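Pyridoxamine 5'-phosphate oxidase family protein
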Amino acid sequence: MRRRDRQITDPAAIADLLSRCKVCRIAVTDRQGPYIVPLNFGYQLSESGALTLYFHSAQTGRKLSALQACTGPVAFEMDCAHRLTAGPTACQYGYDYQSLLGTGQVRILKDPAEKAAALSLLMRAQTGRDFSFSESETRSVAVFSLTSTDYTAKQRGY
């Protein structure tokens, strides 16, 4: 990271950023070329700093096919707390934000209990509420995780 003065390293501040972001973009390359997709997500942040993101999707489509074929890391990015800052001239305008980006490994979840737990984390992150999922509900969607220890968080204006 070039601007170390903007880096967020405090685990509590990173957890706060994760709780406020609602969309994560995942970038992967498939046979058609680069592909980026915005997704709602749930997460777990371990005491060691490992971040696991959870997503769901339809059981068919380019996104799932690309992730199933992926053998290497994927990239991800999320941002929040957007605020335009005015200046006396156009070149003195700025944009405050908080962001987190990195790379990680994707794993398609198969076990119904693991899928239900991931979907519960996703719904908690998005709604603040707890939900439970039946086995038939978990079978109706694809669920995947992205685990990363290679990420950085940064901010401007906060």
